[in-house]
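# step 3/5: fold
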Amino acid sequence: MTTTDYASYIASLPRVLAGAAALFRDATGRVLLVEPNYREGWALPGGTIESDRGESPRTAARRESAEEIGLDVPLGRLLAVDWVLGTGRPPLVAYVYDGGVLDERQLADITLQEEELLSWKLVGPDELTAYLPGSLGLRIQEAYRVLESGEGTAELENGRRPA
C-alpha cells in the first residue's frame, strides 16, 4: 500500500468524537457542576480531547479543568468510559476521571473561564440526573457510584452498563 493509498484509507474511516471530564467533590460528597454559556444545561469541568495534538483523555480532562475552573490538580483513576450514539453527529466516547475532594480554599479559588462558563455549583449525588439529563446524567451518576463503591472502571453505552 502506498502512502497515498494509506492516507485515503485513513480518511475514509468513520469519525468518533472524544471528550474527557473530571468529577470533583466537596467534603460532603457534593459534585461540582459548571454551566456552559454555549448550550443549555450543566456539565462537569471537561471538554474535547485534542488528539490532533497528541493529547490523551487524562491530559485533556486536566487541561480543560484548569482552563474552565482555574484549578490544575492531578486526576485520580478513570471512573467511567461511555460510548454515546448521537443523532446528527458522530458517536462520542466520554471519559470521566476522579478529580478528588476539593477543600474550602480550592473551592474559594475557583475562577470560571468567562468565554465558556456562566456559573458553577455543588449538587448532591441524588440531584445529578436533574441537572444532567439523558446519558450525561446517567454517566456521571454511574461514575459517582463506582467512586463510592471502589469498583473498577464502568464501561457504559449511552450512560448505562451494557446488558
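# step 4/5: annotate
Residues 66 and 72 are 5 Å apart (CA to CA).
# step 5/5: archive (pending)
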